[in-house]
């Protein structure tokens, strides 16, 4: 029997969805989390496909480690920087932000902020911290807001100050992310009060999971746009 996601059952057969959800939720291998998605307690279940993919990832990782050991340091640094540039560009494309690889590369090379590169500087620098294995503290709502301030607040303050978040940490009301064609992609958690109440029960990492994975986002940066930008 083919394994289908709960999302498929949710929209095709509500009664069947609730029965299958209950069965998977109670599975002895299921991992449970202290928050909800669309009103249902969150859980994950390691399927055969997931386990096979995990095993393949481990095997490929060993191959990569071996190949890495054979490369000179300068080649590793160049490859890492190329990957970083591609990742930033892809993130910008998801957000509908126009940027070029040359712009991103220039920021990495000069390590200085200018009026021209301000809109990209914060994001590139955060990726650079991750590349250098520097720790980014995320323990509470204030930490999340600090990341937002470092990434985009200065640009918004200079170009569109009325669009800055109007709450203590987030926006007071729910906001949405739209495609370049103004189609709603995702509607965020309903305002700052709900997010901060949510924070009292779970850690900040779970907030990020709820916003990113549970909300249908592919990255923390997408979530940041939904909550505040």
Descriptive overview:
The chain has 229 residues and is mostly helical. 59% of the residues lie in helices and 8% in strands. The strands form two sheets. The protein has a two-stranded antiparallel sheet. Strands 3-4 form a two-stranded antiparallel sheet. The protein is globular and about 60 Å long. 15% of the residues are buried.
Task: Give the C-alpha Rg.
Answer: 20 Å
Kindly name the structural category: mainly alpha
* Strand segment tally: 4
Q: What fraction strand?
A: 5-15%
What is the string of SSEs from the N terminus onward? Answer: HHEEHHHHHEEHHH
Strand order of the largest sheet: 1-2
Overall pLDDT metric = 75
Shape: globular
For the sheet with most strands, the description reads: 2 strands, antiparallel
CA-CA gap between termini = 44 Å
- Unreliable segments (pLDDT under 50, ≥5 consecutive)? 201-229
């Amino acid at each position: 029997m083919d394994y289908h996601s709960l999302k498929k059952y949710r929209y095709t057969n509500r009664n069947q969805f609730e029965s299958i959800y209950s069965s998977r939720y109670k599975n002895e291998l299921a991992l449970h989390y202290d928050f909800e998605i669309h009103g249902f307690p969150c859980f994950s279940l390691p399927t055969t496909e997931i386990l096979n993919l995990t095993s393949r990832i481990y095997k490929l990782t060993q191959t990569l480690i071996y190949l890495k050991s054979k490369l000179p340091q300068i080649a590793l640094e160049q490859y890492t920087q190329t990957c970083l540039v591609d990742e930033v560009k892809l993130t910008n494309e998801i957000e509908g932000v126009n940027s070029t690889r040359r712009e991103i590369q220039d920021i990495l090379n000069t390590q200085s902020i200018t009026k021209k590169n301000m809109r990209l500087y914060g994001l590139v620098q955060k990726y650079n911290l991750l590349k250098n294995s520097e720790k980014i503290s995320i323990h509470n709502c204030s930490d999340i807001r600090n990341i937002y301030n470092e990434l985009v607040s200065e640009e918004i303050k200079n170009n569109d100050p009325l669009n800055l978040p109007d709450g203590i940490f987030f926006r007071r009301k729910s906001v949405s992310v739209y495609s370049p064609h103004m189609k709603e992609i995702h509607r965020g958690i309903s305002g700052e009060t709900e997010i901060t109440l949510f924070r009292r029960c779970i850690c900040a990492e779970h907030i990020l999971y709820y916003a990113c994975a549970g909300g249908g986002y592919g990255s923390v940066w997408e979530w940041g746009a939904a909550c505040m930008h």
